[in-house]
## 1
Amino acid sequence: MKDLNMLLAGFGGQGVLFAGKVAAYAGLIEGRELSWLPSYGPEMRGGTANCSVCLSDEPIGSPLVTNPNVLIAMNRPSLEKFVNDVEPGGVILLDSSLIEIPVEREDVTVCRVPASKIAEENGLSGLANMVLMGKLFEVVGFCKEETLDAALQKCIPARKAAMLDLNRKAIALGRAS
Amino acid sequence: MAEKVLMKGNEALAEAAIQAGCRHFFGYPITPQTELAAYMAKRMPKLGGTYLQAESELAAVNMVLGAAAAGVRAMTSSSSPGVSLKGEGISYMAGSDLPAVIINVQRGGPGLGGIQPSQADYWQATKALGHGDFQILVFAPSTVQEMVDLVALAFDRADEYRMPAMILADGMLGQMMEPVVLPEAHDVAAHEKPWAASGHKNERKHNIVNSLYLTPNALESLVVERYKRYEIVKANEQRAEEYLVDDADVVVVAYGASSRVARSAVNKAREKGLKAGLIRPITLWPFPVDTLKKAARHVKQFLTVEMSMGQMVDDVRLAVECKVPVSFYGRTGGVIPTPKEVLGEIEKLV
């Protein structure tokens, strides 16, 4: 994909900002132009949270993604809010364990991944975000394989090193889903 | 070249200030600039510097005044409502010819307003930050890298011209992460401050830093002298970026976050074959009058885009002496305009 204009959205605490950060670091490692913009404020305390990530080979204009070519929706309100903003030809990845409604669009690729279920069944509760990132990598290939792992390492601080392998496992499960 | 790191705008501002030799930070928390103060709180003690969370914005700005009077590089940061409170101290600094850096990560107003990004403090920053005849330098970054670069410049120019300097950012720039190359630590000693009230050790006459002058003629001549300095600043320090302006019929004028939206819109307009360009003021005071005047010779329409009800647009009209029509598009209250909206405005003008 030439330019990634991604919107990640879900409840606060589902890790949309973290998942966005992994994509941003992948861009940094590959020397691309990039921006990462979180929503901030009351959303972070239990409401909806979202995050815009742009990767490009040209300087980034507006870092606020209003018409994403990739939407990662981790709950129903997020899907309902953004589904019609996705560019024709774009990709919608959604956590089908939490979102039961259909996507009423013919002009986008829809990937329904039971990410929360996959995570929980594998003892990776809370890592549905990384399951979806694994799937995103398979579908969109926004960076090289080794970059993805390097980005993950950048995002996990040394004191939480134990989390690295769990995140890797979640990504692998997402890729295989 | 130094390695690029990924940093939030707020944190990058703080690190850049440290690299510019700032070891005295006085603040009071407010969204969306709090990461800046938090970063300073972590870093300053390790550097032997001072981080102090004051009891109020008023106290913080007056601590900056005191530190600046002693000749050190000092900084405070806040967001819109907090900057209003700091206005009094900034007027006193201007009246005392003191250099310092003030950061405003703007949010929606008036009043407590909201916490989302805004550019509604343009008038405040460039025209009415406090009482009395005075100006401060106002820099408007549009990327995290530029935030870093302009902090260093703000400290240097503040010292050079002995006046406060502001970085006028907004919640979008403060909260976003972008790749950034951090600067090398630079030489603060280059700016000697023989006027500083830093202890005379019986070796020289004592210095007085003051803004109170009860004799009208004395006060007038001081202000007039200061305004002569402002003329030098206006002649030397105007900065703006021109993007696709040379052959443009419609030129968007926008700074900071809205200039990024405008750049996206200009790119879309060009894809459609429309001759659009962008002038992005980097200094808001002094306003880049010369760049606009030059463009006005061939541009057919100017469109000012701001995250406000229309403030900088007045300065654009003054700069082009109303010889070319200047229209305005803005969103306010924390709403960020979309490239599509701005493109629509460009299309109306072509």
## 2
Amino acid sequence: MKKKYSIFSLAKNALSGHKEWPKMWRSPEPREFYDVIIIGGGGHGLGTAYYLAKEHGLKNIAVIEKGWLGGGNTGRNTTIIRSNYLWDDSAHLYEHSLKLWENLSSELNYNVMFSQRGVMNLAHNEHDIKEIKRRVSANNLNGIDSFWLSKEEIQKKVPIMNTDNLRYPVLGASYQPRGGVARHDAIAWGFAMRADEMGVDIIQNCEAHQIRTKNGTIEGVETSKGFLRANKIGVVASGHTGVLAESAGIRLPLQSKPLQALVSEPIKPIIDTVVMSSAVHAYVSQSDKGELVIGAGTDSYNSFTQRGGFNIIEDTIRAMVELYPVFGKMKMLRQWGGIVDICPDASPIISKCDIEGLFFNCGWGTGGFKATPGSANVFAHTIAKNEPHQINSAFNLDRFASGRLVDEHGAAAVAH
Amino acid sequence: MLIINCPYCGPRDQSEFSNGGEAHVKRPDGSKEIGDREWGEYVFIRANPKGLFYERWVHTHGCRKWFNCVRDTSTDEILVTYKLDEKKPNLNNFKSVVKTPSGEPEVGSGNFTVEK
């Protein structure tokens, strides 16, 4: 039965002490055979299952997840959403996603708390200014809202920012008003619930061990709950995608590293937009609970430990305190790391491969959350039709042979 | 933060070092005959195992010498460091603590030092 959430259902369940809410999704035991198995129950994987069922009429789908839904990078990022990318291919992909975000709460009838509070990318030197102005122009040519803010306009929007008295003064910024943040758990739960209603089996605590192939065609996947046969498998396992690809004999150009974030103690509203700075590497926004959500960088070495090195957050905190002296005495509540898979060109891979029926959606590196609905949408298309959607055709595996990279390393407005 | 045993200077703080990625990568022979795909693999693809990993480090803010290392990427434990001209150690000499390919080690996230 389709679950509806409204002010009335809230009132009704309040009367019964919130004990009668129905379960959002079933927890079935896996069947022996599925048309499509998605490995990875984060936002991207659950979204892929949702769009496969909704837009492509597939019903016999499973999503397998080694832990709990959204417990990987979906629950570990700083939830920043924007589409102000330099290159056309990226701009189209992230704008596709941003448009889906704008309608997602009503489409899912589940509040993903998408808040378009604007995203600012700071310029700290002459080169930043040129680079950012170029990107703003490229965005405008692609129909993406993006403009240049002077230092005075920044001071008006974020009065707590120290723009002058610091090593790298703030000289201006790009601003995308339609950018913002969303609730990380809600996107996973919303997709999971609606996919489950359409018959998708969501199987948690089921770790994929090995992808089995025969004569260049997919057979299925060995899991901790036994062998599951499948016609098609989509791997959306972020940091562990490379490990799974290896089990099918595929080498992917991915390196896994911890990316860190931290949140402060909750305070009253003080910053009502998202401010990112790639030059000094500190991103900040304020959650609805009042915590500052701070994004730090990746470690320089490969690692699967979900915590990262202390020197990384030390650098970020140093930059934060310089940019916002008012935060100097605040306490940090939590710190964590998520394992991101970084591509040599800092762009994702949404592609089929040499093995028939095996698809990859990976390489999102440090910026996958914003792409969740768009990535899922075009990945579902790629799996269902056996060929890429126009939007993700540039993000194939062949680009590492042809050299047609989508180099977003410096161009994407953040340092990776 | 890691403490890395530089084969020339001894144990030092990680902030003195820079990571150089996978070690023992060999440039393919016969560059005339090799196709785009093989070149692409050599240029872009590096091993990315969960578990034992051969990698390179350079003591940037010290002796500035490069050296190799075997580290467990599931725990960040550095098992051995060795000079560039030394033979690469056999991975069978080390115990991998990863139980399933994508699973977590019993004592994960760099906490192995507590155990010891």
